[in-house]
Design brief:
alpha+beta; Serine Threonine Protein Phosphatase 5, Tetratricopeptide repeat; Immunoglobulin-like; 4 domains; eight-stranded mixed sheet; 26 helices
Length: about 900
């Protein structure tokens, strides 16, 4: 109240003063214009805003000179305002005037030191101007503001690399990779390329190739990475791989001049000089007589595509430890199919440590004409290009010339070690006396110093060598006569279990084999602060050792990607565990070594395990040799004789299980001082289970709507994870629609939900909603055949197509499949159910059940493969069994609308 009264008094007082003093606005009865006072600050602000408005409009019109002028005028009005500075910097940047852009951004960051985007801009400009020290400063400042800035991390890594700080560069880029492991963010697009540049600088060519290949895997159209790969392959003399990369570039950009130029140059290159090697001449043969007698092969084997007239191999170990080999073959080609088999002869060897000479390569036509082959190429063995595997082994390919049915080809190739080994190297090997074509004679000669002892063994045959001793040099000759062609069958045993052959090894015992690997790996299980920190972070808060082991396994399996770099000793010796963790990739040896080292940090003892997975040959315990193994896994002994088997290279295999290819295999456990043979467990059918539950509702509008649930475990889990994690989520509905359309025409998938396929600790599941029109199932008026969801049994029809088998059939592993379907039928409909079936044999059983209750059809198809190896005697019964299964899987429900709805 007091305040209100005071206001009234002040107003009255002002009015009195106004009247007494005379109004300066009113003179002589006229209204005069008032003189306005203008504040200079307001005027300056208005002028600044006007310049900003002009500049903004000019930017919209892409009139950069006018925009630049207006922003500069704004700066004259307000020199300390940051907005014109950043806009001027951006204009200079956009017009590629990098020196002026550098100065403008420098002025801006002086005013706004915490703007990391501006610092990133400034760092990039310094890159463009070649001032990497200045770029480093800006990116480091940006990371002080936000340590997870991917752009700054990537470009700081590049800047470090350019200034020779390779270790710091790799460390920074690894931080970026940890934040964005699959390079989804735009800032990470060149991350693997930058890592590759670092490895190139160090001379680690294998690692550089691995990084470029990973970049191409993530970004298929990465032309720059392909150009770098092409250049590396050219430098390494691997011209075929270089040609592949340049050809791929042209598929992406048909006008790429560099790719066109390099392909033209490579196509004109002559064969490089090769050290001349004399053949290992141990066995005397009359090759001309063999060729002359070859005409008999055509009448003796009228159904053959080719007949091997001579298959001969000679192996010599010199007193200095050098190995020399010569392979010599004479082959009669009878059909065009035979020509396709032998038009290119591939000889594997390692050009880094071996010399190769083609002693003979010719074609003899039926009229006696002779054509020499002169086209030789070095190529990467098939499969390595598709996987992230780099090996120094190549194929030397001889392209045979002038081939026609009835001709004979002869080739002789010799390989020799480039250096001596002082007689210390171990050796092993073997030879097959039978092939997929008829063979008339096979010879194997082995010559070595008498004191180089070895053991040998004949398998699937009775054969003794001829032994000759001369001047402390002993020669062994194995001769084998005529053999028919191997009859190839789907799912047949490994060829080593079938053909007559022999094997040899200089190892005396399995303990010696174990010692060999133990010595290679003994200093590889290192650990550093990084390993300790990772292990602590992973296991913190976990109570049991089992949980900790599982967490470490999940990390190594999913976070350390598989890359095989088999160069020199690296083909056998694992990398340091600390390096594997640092690089975040490795092969089976590397990943196993890292996991063992990490487990050691939690006081869990684990051992490397040498294994030869299926479908490779099973280990022969009577022939100690490292050559019998091709893979490495991990074994963790538990209390009461329990064992945890782990394969850290299987990125989709959940903890506690092994991929089917590793199950039921004899393995060599490399313990601290001894070796132990064990057999990996084989999972029962219930472990490898596929459950498919489907609910289908037929609507009154004749639209069928369905919900499907897929629950895979064991090997099914491994396979489903691997298959569907490769699919872009954008395409997942389309993928399932394509698969289900095999049963339901014009089906559309409405929704797909699935578990996190990257998380190995959670079970895999898929839930799919779909619909389709019942009319697509119509066979007559108001009559329909409704397919049921399939159990993926179609392949059995092909597998069991032959009437009989010569060899056993391996279906891989025990399985159990349960397919349950509910179909809700509208009122006024009839349904005809198929007949039920129940079959049970010692190798497998299946049954089908159908029922109808309260307008719902219940169906179930059940399959259990108990013994996946089908003997030739059981094959006829199994053929009928699986034929019935396939037909049962294809059965329909017959639906009929009642006449008049009754």
């Amino acid at each position: 109240m007091f305040i209100h009264h005071l206001k009234r008094k002040l107003i009255l007082f002002s009015l009195i003063v106004f009247l007494l003093s005379g109004c300066s606005v009113i003179r002589q009865g006229h209204l005069l214009r008032r003189q306005e006072t203008v504040d200079p600050f307001i005027l300056r602000n208005q002028q600044w805003k006007e310049q900003i408005r002009i500049a903004d409009q000019a930017l919209l019109d892409r009139n950069f000179p006018l925009a630049l002028e207006a922003f500069q005028n704004a700066l004259l009005i307000k020199p300390k305002h940051s907005l014109p500075h950043i806009e001027i910097a951006k204009i200079y940047f956009q017009t590629q005037d990098y020196e002026k852009a550098r100065d403008a951004f420098s002025n801006y960051v002086a005013l706004e030191p915490k703007d990391r985007n501006a610092r990133n801009y400034l760092g990039y400009i310094h890159e463009k101007l070649g001032n990497y020290e200045a770029a480093t400063e800006q990116f480091e400042n940006s990371l002080r503001i936000n340590s997870r800035d991917l752009y700054a991390l990537n470009h700081l890594g590049l800047a470090y690399k350019q200034t020779g700080k390779l270790d710091e560069a790799e460390m920074i880029l690894r931080k970026a990779l940890a934040i964005d492991p699959i390079c989804q963010r735009t800032e990470s697009k060149n991350l693997h390329n930058y890592l590759a540049l670092i490895f190139q600088e160090r001379g680690d060519i294998g690692e550089a190739i691995a990084e470029y290949r990973e970049s191409i895997r993530l970004f298929h159209n990465d032309i720059w990475a392909r150009q770098q790969l092409g250049a590396i392959f050219e430098d390494e003399g691997r011209h075929f791989e270089a040609q592949i990369q340049y050809s791929k570039i042209l598929e992406i950009d048909s006008e790429n001049l560099l790719a066109k130029d390099r392909l033209q140059v490579l196509n004109q290159l002559s064969t490089p000089n090769i050290v001349k090697i004399n053949p290992v001449d141990i066995i005397e043969i009359d090759n001309e007589q063999i060729i002359e007698d070859g005409y008999l092969a055509e009448t003796t084997y009228p159904n053959a595509d080719a007949v091997i007239l001579l298959n001969q191999f000679s192996h010599e170990i010199l007193t200095n430890g050098q190995n020399r080999y010569t392979t010599h073959q004479i082959i009669k080609l009878l059909t065009y199919r035979g020509i396709k088999q032998y038009d290119d002869i591939a000889i594997p060897y390692n050009p880094d440590v071996q010399y190769l000479t083609v002693n003979q390569a010719r074609t003899i036509l039926p009229d006696g004409s002779i054509y020499q082959s002169e086209a030789f190429n070095r190529v990467t063995p098939p499969g390595l290009l598709e996987y992230n595997l780099y090996s120094d082994t190549v194929w030397h390919v001889i392209s045979m010339s002038a081939l026609e049915p009835g001709c004979t080809i002869e080739y002789q190739v010799s390989i020799e070690d480039a250096t001596t080994s002082n007689g210390e190297n171990r050796f092993w090997g073997g030879f097959h006396f039978q092939s997929t074509n008829p063979t008339l004679q096979t010879n194997y000669a082995f010559r070595l110093p008498k004191d180089r002892g070895f053991r040998w063994k004949a398998v699937n045959c009775m054969i003794e060598p001829q032994i000759m001793l001369e001047n402390e040099i002993v020669t062994y000759l194995w001769h084998y006569g005529e053999t028919p062609a191997i009859h190839e069958e789907v799912g047949m045993p490994n060829i080593d279990e079938i053909v007559p052959r022999f094997s040899f090894s200089s190892f005396d015992s399995w303990d010696e084999v174990s010692n060999w690997y133990r010595e290679l790996a003994k200093d590889r299980y290192d650990f550093d602060s990084n390993i300790k920190q990772i292990v602590n972070n992973l296991t913190s808060g976990l109570e049991t050792q089992h949980e900790k082991i599982r967490t470490i396994y999940d990390f190594v399996t999913s976070k350390i990607r598989y890359v095989g770099i088999e160069l020199g000793k690296g083909a056998y010796q694992p990398s340091l565990a600390s390096q594997v963790l640092h690089k975040r990739y490795g092969d089976c040896k590397d990943k196993t070594t890292l996991m063992i080292s990490m487990l050691d940090q939690i006081d869990v003892q684990a051992f490397p395990v040498l294994i030869n997975p299926s479908p490779f040959a099973r280990v022969d315990p009577e022939m100690p040799s490292t050559g019998q193994f091709s893979h490495l896994i991990t074994m963790i002994p538990q209390q009461e004789g329990e064992i945890i088997w782990l394969d850290p290279t299987s990125e989709t295999c959940p903890f506690g299980s092994l991929p089917a290819i590793n199950q039921g295999r004899q393995v060599l456990v490399v313990k601290k001082k001894t070796a132990e043979f064990l057999e990996t467990p084989t999972a029962p059918p219930e472990f490898n289970q596929l459950i498919v539950n489907t609910k289908i509702v037929i609507g009154s509008d004749d639209v069928i709507r369905g919900d499907m649930e897929i629950l895979p475990t064991g090997q099914y889990d491994i396979d489903y994870r691997f298959a569907y994690k490769q699919i872009n989520p954008v395409n997942i509905k389309q993928t399932f629609a394509a698969e289900l359309n095999g049963r339901f025409t014009s089906l559309q998938v409405d929704q797909v939900h699935m578990s996190d396929l990257q998380d190995l600790s959670t079970p895999t599941w898929f839930r799919i909603k779909f619909h389709f029109d019942l009319k697509t199932m119509s066979v007559a008026n108001d009559r329909f055949l409704l397919s049921l969801p399939g159990g993926d049994f179609e392949n059995y029809a092909q597998i069991f197509a032959p009437r009989e088998r010569q060899y056993s059939l391996d279906l891989s592993h025990p399985i159990k499949v349960v397919r349950s379907t509910e179909v809700r039928i509208p009122e006024g409909w009839d349904v005809i159910l198929p007949a039920e079936i129940n079959k049970d044999y010692h190798f497998a059983s299946f049954s089908s059940k159908y029922s109808y209750e309260n307008s719902i059809v219940y169906t179930q198809l059940y399959l259990m493969v108990k013994n996946p190896v089908i003997s030739p005697n059981d094959y006829p019964v199994a053929k009928v069994f699986f034929g019935q299964l396939v037909r049962e899987d294809q059965k329909h429900l017959t639906l009929q609308k009642k006449i008049g709805g009754t």
